[in-house]
Amino acid sequence: MKPKAVIIGAGFGGLSCAVTLAAAGWEVTVLERQQQPGGKLQRVQAGGYSFDRGPSTITMPHVFRSLYELAGARMEDYVQLYELEPRTRNVFADGRVVDFSRDTGRMREQMASYSPADAARLPEFLAEASRLYQLSEKQFLNRLLLSWRDKLSPSLVRDLVRVRPFLSLHSLLLRYFSHPNTLAMLGRYATYVGSSPYRSPSIFAMLGHLEIQEGVYGVKGGTYELISGLSALARNLGVRLITGTEVTRISVVSGAVEGVDTEQGFYPAKTVIAGGDVLSINRMLLPQAVRPGMTDRKIEAYEPSLSGLVTLAGVPRTYDALLHHTVFFPENYEQEFKDIFEHKRPPQQPTVYICHSGYSEPELAPAGGSNLFILANAPYLSPACDWSEERDAYGERVMSVLESHGVSGLPSADVLERYTPQDIARDTLAHQGAIYGISSNTVKQTFARPGNRSSDVKGLWYVGGTTHPGGGTPVVSLSGRLVGEYIASHV
């Protein structure tokens, strides 16, 4: 008989793990509480506009390609990616613009318009970013750290010292740059893992190498096609993918997993992989008596990542200011993170990000229209912020920022939907509505995340942004593959 696994959640981590196990000959069932797979990434279609509500900046395409290759398939038969050039447009409060590009000479020309000194240091910074990525890929991204022997191996400890874990991203940037525009533009990489550049470790400078030198990619038909492709691949491998089915309890007998209970019945399995938020999985699906290593008190001690207010705007016009990815920065970038993490309130002057996939694929909107996914950082859920009041107030503040940059007409859009941290928590069970699981604002939460293997329950595993190796679409996919490969070869 084939070995059997049940996976909770059909996000990138769960689907990647399902593909990996099924390709190794396992019988796999994936249970997803939402009506469609994808986790935090969902497709929304309204008024002739198509939106991706969730992750939109795609890097590291080799991670996705490898999943198809291990299954003996070609990624191009399921999903098509295309490189974006320029990658991302950065618009500053002083009106200056820098477009991330493989042509770093062009980037330096744009940076020189406000700081010749910063422009001159860009190559040195990118060399540092490349070094950090290579160390991360070698020691953290492509291996599980399941035991203290793994975590304290001499090579890992040596390379951990080399990435300077106690140096913040902002402090590293100050070694190369001085202008507020550059510091904000490159400091924003901390938000890719839901964190503050003023507190998170300098390792996240590696994202500068990934974006600028390795490339940012669009997905033909929208980012959700990554989920559609993995879902189709999983089904072709024999995976049972069951949506609209919520797991209500992980069954544990004598310290070992026996399967999962759902509203539709019991699914037996000696191996269960939880693809949702590790903190929510423990709090909601396991009684405290069977999880002494993850008590409610310990769960509450973790700092959640930032969340976000999402606006989907289908507008019957186009905008010269926008590329596929565009970011509008405030004058005081640091204050945004003080508001979010210290005061736990929506910032008064937020950074606003827009994904306009219709820039690359006009067919995703009616002729002459724009499908805008608009994201503004927001605090995780707490009593300090009442989203029944802040939903529209903060949303209007975001629109005011865009109006000041020439992105106007949003209040009269054909489609206008807002999605708050409360909605994120409701739909995905993300702990306190945090988009990226726990923050990376400390060394411990960056390099010693909750483990992929439960220390309390035999046969229970975790994949996703809250666990190792961390947040971000390709990294979450890596967690699923790494766990799947380990289970297939060791269980």
TrEMBL record:
Keyword check for rRNA-binding, yes or no: no
Q: What is this protein called?
A: 4,4'-diaponeurosporene oxygenase
Q: Which reaction does it catalyse?
A: all-trans-4,4'-diaponeurosporene + 2 AH2 + 2 O2 = 4,4'-diaponeurosporenal + 2 A + 3 H2O
Quote the pathway field: Carotenoid biosynthesis; staphyloxanthin biosynthesis; staphyloxanthin from farnesyl diphosphate: step 3/5
What Gene3D superfamilies does UniProt report for this protein, alphabetically? FAD/NAD(P)-binding domain
Signal peptide positions on this chain:
1-22
Pfam families, from UniProt?
A: Amino_oxidase
Under the heading InterPro entries, the entry gives:
Amino_oxidase (IPR002937), Carotenoid/retinoid_OxRdtase (IPR014105), FAD/NAD-bd_sf (IPR036188)
Gene source species: Paenibacillus silagei
